[in-house]
Design a protein that fits this description.
The chain contains three helices and three strands; from the N terminus they run E-E-E-H-H-H. The chain is of the alpha+beta class and 71 residues long. A three-stranded antiparallel beta sheet has the order 1-2-3. Strand 1 and strand 2 form a beta hairpin. The two termini are 25 Å apart.
């Protein structure tokens, strides 16, 4: 399944925490957490369409806590 990892974002000028970036990861049974840089091309090769891949974005949008997403 897919999970989210949160990376803090800092403003360089004053080193202040300004938010978080939600990073989707695919939990592979033997590889562990796999980056989208790896799994999205794999999904494309497997025949998934941009609409299918957009569903993953929907997962991210749905599961990011509202305060972190700026909502």
């Amino acid at each position: 399944g897919f999970t989210l990892a949160y990376q803090p974002l800092f403003r360089i000028a004053d080193k202040r925490l300004v938010g978080f970036e939600a990073l989707a990861r695919w939990n592979h049974p033997t590889r562990g957490a796999v980056s989208p840089v790896v799994f999205i091309p794999m999904l494309t090769r497997m025949g998934l369409t941009p609409v299918d891949i957009a569903a993953i974005q929907g997962f991210v949008d749905r599961d990011v806590p509202a305060p972190l997403a700026g909502r």
